[in-house]
What does this fold into?
Amino acid sequence: MSKPEFVYVTYIETTPEKLWHALTDGDFTERYWFGHRIASDWKVGSPYRFTHPSRPSPLGKVLISDAPKKLAYTWEACAEELKLERTSRVTFDIEPRGKVVKLTVTHDNLDERGKTLRGISEGWPMVLASLKSFLETGHPLPAEIKSDAA
It folds into this structure.
């Protein structure tokens, strides 16, 4: 039996290089990812960590770092109620399509009945919509959208 996965595809008017930078630079993630700041050297095998002033945040290690085409990392949830779930994987596939970039985010190796699957099914669409808005307009989604959903 295969493990559940979450797949989200969006098209963003940007370049692969700008999208890569937005996914890997803490100054950018903090602005569109509702306060979560990412940090890593982005070498395969290196750790990465999200930090947030008031929430537990995921961490893990870099699995693939092929700028500006593909990024993958493990996802270890830090919230106490999620620590018993298996480590999952997030993959970003970045494909140029003329003046836009096709971004496919796959989050897999999830527990079938776990809270991570339910959480990311709501969380990823908000984060990716905010990323798209930020890259196309310079403005992320308002923070209230995250608190309304939480």
